[in-house]
Design goal:
This protein is mainly α. Helices cover 68% and strands 0% of the residues. It is built from nine helices and no strands. Helix 2 packs parallel to helix 5 and helix 6 packs antiparallel against helix 8. The longest helix is centred in the middle third of the chain and has 28 residues, at 70-97. The protein is globular.
Length: 224
């Protein structure tokens, strides 16, 4: 069953990113997109082979679940919509619009480094936090506790911090300054979701208030 889920997950990821990037591009000959897809798939396989099975089972659940507050359902849907919109906009700008020109090799390479670094931070977050569900909810059946170690000792939402690096790095790697600016929209949705999530956790999860007093910053050390 695990191997089946892994194969299905890989197929879904390739279809998702491949469809949203290559179909609007109108070509399969876009090596930067293929390299990005390869990196994402490789990291997904690595994560699936090294993370606990119960965490993976939780991560494979749908984005709308029982016990999830309405505010999170709304913000999560908005994030997913703006994220997909960003991915589609990248090939449209690269192959058609050319709004703000394209980054040079150095900036594009920095973008790929941000993608890999962001994925690595998200992996470290998952490895540290066995309760990192894709939705905001109190996992009473799994005896959820506050995680304050590893990357969670630096910021309260390292998964989102890694996601932001990915959102900025991807359009730079795929050579679209305009899309890099547009990434501010899904990033704003992530920031809004942090506020929703923290309000919920302060109310439902014992010890979360004390955790916020020890770890001051939500997303970016010394800034926010």
């Amino acid at each position: 069953m695990f191997i089946f889920k892994l194969i299905v997950g890989i197929i879904i990821q390739m279809a998702f990113f491949g469809g949203l990037l290559l179909l609007p591009a109108g070509t399969l000959e876009w090596w930067r997109a293929w390299l990005f897809i390869g990196v994402i798939v490789a990291l997904a396989v690595w994560s699936s082979l090294s993370l606990p099975q119960d965490l993976l089972d939780e991560r494979w659940k749908p984005p709308i679940q029982k016990g999830q507050p309405l505010a999170d359902k709304i913000v999560l849907v908005l994030f997913l919509a703006t994220f997909c919109g960003l991915i589609v906009f990248i090939p449209l700008d690269v192959f058609r619009f050319h709004l703000l020109g394209e980054p040079g090799t150095l900036v594009a390479s920095l973008g790929l480094a941000l993608v890999v670094g962001g994925c690595w931070i998200m992996y470290l977050s998952l490895r540290e936090n066995a309760f990192a569900a894709p939705v905001v909810k109190h996992q009473e059946e799994r005896h959820q506790t506050v995680i304050a170690t590893g990357v969670y000792g630096l910021v309260r939402h390292p998964m989102y911090a890694g996601g932001i690096l990915l959102l900025i790095g991807l359009p730079l790697w795929l050579e679209s300054y305009a899309a890099a600016l547009l990434a501010s929209v899904p990033i704003g949705m992530l920031a809004l979701r942090i506020l929703v999530e923290e309000q919920f956790l302060r109310r439902e999860l014992k010890g979360y208030d004390a955790y916020t007093e020890r770890v001051w910053y939500r997303l970016i050390p010394f800034l926010w």
